[in-house]
Amino acid sequence: MNNRPGSILIVDDEPHNFDVIEALLTAYDYELNYASSGQEALESLEILEVDLILLDVMMPDVDGIKVCERIKAIPQYQPIPIIMVTALSTKEDLAQCLSAGADDFISKPVNALELRARVQSMLRIKQQYNALQLALDRQSVLEAEKRELLENRNSELEAEVSMRVATLKSASEMIMHNALHDALTDLPNRRLLLQQIELAILRSYQLDNYGYAILFLDLDQFNIVNDSLGHIVGDQVLISISERLKSHLDDVCLLARFGGDEFVILLEYITNIDEVIKIVERILNDFQIPLTLNSGEIFINVSIGVVLGNTNYHQAGDLLRDADLAMYKAKAQGRNSYKIFDVEMHNQAVKRMTLETDLRHALDRQDFIIYYQPIMDILNGDRLVGFEALVRWQHPTRGIVSPMDFVPIAEETGLIVALDSWVFNEACKQLAQWKIEFPDTSSLKVSINLTAQDIRQPNFLANIDRTLAETGLDGKSITLEITESMLLDDIDTTIDLLTQVKSRNIQISIDDFGTGYSSLNYIHRLPADYLKIDRSFVNQIQEAKRNHQIVQTIIALSNQLELAVIAEGIETSEQLQILRDLDCEFGQGYLFSKPLSVQEIKEKFML
């Protein structure tokens, strides 16, 4: 195959226009030739090997359309792509160009990005044509050889040669198909999808009123299917879903398997967002119907991100990035839903990525401090019994960052393990120091929050033992707070681990009780010491209200399980009195104190 960069003939009666095009294409090392008229162009074609013609429409003697018709009328010049360069923009004018045999067109004034993209596209087409022609020539040679063999050999050899040619052709077609399609579903794959999106971007520059959109689909919790039913059934589900999705699309839409359980749909020639939404809603409604497989019925939900193409997009990857981001927003707002991309999503993603990077640096620099909120014995004169350790991030430029902003990121990235380990060590050191500095505080305890990721660490117990040894604290000075949701994953292992924690005299508190998924099947088996009533119940605890009954029930349950109760979020004297009347032993909240720094704790409670 010829590997030269490409020979381009520029036909224009204005030499200045040649200079402009030459300047725009100078970086690509193309061989540029110039003809000032249609007749000169035909004469140049007789002596030059041309791969592409850039043909001006408006010329004085013979216009570009007539020149195009003359060139395309000559068989040997028909394969040469022609791009019309025109200031005309009506559909009728463009249709006349295409009717004359032009392969593409560029609007004046010439845009550099558009010129380069279209030139590269047409040259690729010409190269592919040359390769095809070479293959055909080779095939012609084979056919000639076959005819010679047929003249000299019997019919058996003729059949053998014919079979060989058919096999080669079939193998070539199969290789090309496999390179552009998914092996499991036979849908277009990522490579073909990217090519088609790039073409859609080019069409959006070229055609008036041309609209397109990208739908990014992700199956919700598909890993559960593979884990519970096996990958063979999972593959059957993917095949069934691909067939179901195709039923909602017409011939101008492309459905591709992007990878794993992700599919992408390219919608073309759309006129408004309502068309897109109708298709999305039909797909979501269809997913309400279970899939029927040999193993039975399976319900699969899907989250869809939608992005509308516009002239700001120049690369397929940017469209897929934004559609993927919208899909994750849809997944976050609830299963079987969709979200349309907007610029604010991108800004939030950049902000989150920046915050994650800063968080990693903050762990290295230890840009964190611990605030302590007092826990009071509300049945015995509001006596101080301990503190809950609450981490705060001192960002170098943003100031104090709320835990609501950085803790979810830490949990998603796994950084929460290192952060919680630091909090545990620092809180234990601080309590040990207070006990030495203020002997009257010897009975105080510190409550420290844990996540599910913390207790799954293989060195979890070893780290606790090391910290107790280094600080000299007895385990009875520490309470570990765990949420109800942590208990759902492998409850038997969790109970065994907490039992080992209890053997070190450390107490266990079930945090945010009533907001999770507790079951009496295992609550009574937990080696817990406290139930902590969530602040959402305390905020609306007025008598005769539903929350009053819930709190009363939790306290009654704790009495049956021989657990103490801590109410958090106490903000008014009325709330405090109701909790006392219900025999709630302990409480914390702004009525007693907001979370305080170490110095504030010393000044308010110890000096």
UniProtKB/TrEMBL annotation:
<feature type="domain" description="Response regulatory">
    <location>
        <begin position="7"/>
        <end position="123"/>
    </location>
</feature>
<dbReference type="Pfam" id="PF00563">
    <property type="entry name" value="EAL"/>
</dbReference>
<protein>
    <submittedName>
        <fullName>Response regulator receiver protein</fullName>
    </submittedName>
</protein>
<feature type="coiled-coil region">
    <location>
        <begin position="132"/>
        <end position="160"/>
    </location>
</feature>
<dbReference type="Pfam" id="PF00990">
    <property type="entry name" value="GGDEF"/>
</dbReference>
<dbReference type="InterPro" id="IPR050706">
    <property type="entry name" value="Cyclic-di-GMP_PDE-like"/>
</dbReference>
<dbReference type="InterPro" id="IPR001633">
    <property type="entry name" value="EAL_dom"/>
</dbReference>
<dbReference type="InterPro" id="IPR000160">
    <property type="entry name" value="GGDEF_dom"/>
</dbReference>
<dbReference type="InterPro" id="IPR029787">
    <property type="entry name" value="Nucleotide_cyclase"/>
</dbReference>
<keyword id="KW-0597">Phosphoprotein</keyword>
<dbReference type="InterPro" id="IPR043128">
    <property type="entry name" value="Rev_trsase/Diguanyl_cyclase"/>
</dbReference>
<feature type="domain" description="EAL">
    <location>
        <begin position="352"/>
        <end position="607"/>
    </location>
</feature>
<dbReference type="InterPro" id="IPR001789">
    <property type="entry name" value="Sig_transdc_resp-reg_receiver"/>
</dbReference>
<dbReference type="GO" id="GO:0071111">
    <property type="term" value="F:cyclic-guanylate-specific phosphodiesterase activity"/>
</dbReference>
<dbReference type="InterPro" id="IPR035919">
    <property type="entry name" value="EAL_sf"/>
</dbReference>
<feature type="modified residue" description="4-aspartylphosphate">
    <location>
        <position position="56"/>
    </location>
</feature>
<dbReference type="InterPro" id="IPR011006">
    <property type="entry name" value="CheY-like_superfamily"/>
</dbReference>
<dbReference type="GO" id="GO:0000160">
    <property type="term" value="P:phosphorelay signal transduction system"/>
</dbReference>
<dbReference type="Pfam" id="PF00072">
    <property type="entry name" value="Response_reg"/>
</dbReference>
<feature type="domain" description="GGDEF">
    <location>
        <begin position="210"/>
        <end position="343"/>
    </location>
</feature>
<keyword id="KW-0175">Coiled coil</keyword>
